[in-house]
UniProtKB/TrEMBL annotation:
SUPFAM superfamilies: Ribokinase-like. It comes from the Bacteria. Keywords: ATP-binding, Kinase, Nucleotide-binding, Transferase. This is 6-phosphofructokinase.
Amino acid sequence: MRIMASATFPLPTRARPIVTLTVNPALDISTSTAQVIKDHKMRCGPSRIDPGGGGVNVARTIQSLGGDALAIYAAGGLTGATYRQLLEAENVPSVVVPIDGTTRESFTVDEGGSGEQFRFVLQGPEFSEAEWRSCLAALEAAIVPGGYVVASGSLPPGVPTNFYAQVARLAHQRGARSIIDTSGDALAAALAEGVYLVKPSLRELSELVGRELSTEQAEVDAAAELVARGSAQLVALTLGDQGAVLASAAGVIRLPVPHVQVQSAVGAGDAFLGAFVWRLSQGRDPEAAFRSAVCAGSATAAKPATEMCAIAEVEALEKLLPEATRY
């Protein structure tokens, strides 16, 4: 299996480098219509296409904030070729792992009348064992001791459930810190291996600890439990408009989200993670990185489609955040 580095953009070099891995990227198509009506042909407004997917969006965020990250991703078919062109146009350094299948698409429709957003995410292409192993090989070649490895997004058909656990193991073996952002059995397997940072939603955290989390204290206790278990050194629980919680060996803190006019939730969680790891790579402490992450998620939610936030927007929102609540 050939692995292609971008011929246009050099791989980034930095003291604490960041590498992201996306095995199931998606070409994000966004548009709008006045009203979504069953069985009707709905005329749409202007459309926009972005290169999406967890790890790629993390790298795009870091790029937008003024940092560097190497994005490793699998791509194939005509959709994959378009995807690569779009990412290169954003000057994101990348390594492409070719696959026989066609890169998937996702489709987002904003309903003008109600302000609701409808998201349709297609299943990814079937991977052969050789293809997913090539993704791991590309990652292993790119890991730098002391750096960060961010593996994010869903797993396409054919990729084993323990894939992200293998990613975490590779990072540990190479002296790097692993950040995993996925869900279900793949997330549970990665946490059984042990990771540096994990970013579950409330539903995902509830599944991990095996109980309903119906109070603020229950949320705090569950996040702290993952740290106590050794599943993750940092647990960033994202709660949408209810803010976010950060648990570590130093304790648990909570931040609200700054108020913004939300345009699109697509990519907001990835922006949160991108800002978090970028600040960590700069030597910021986890609490300072967490503040930037909360603001980056909000700033991205205020953008259309899958457009990522800018550093000035993040810094402006940081000035509005109160001190964290400590537990």
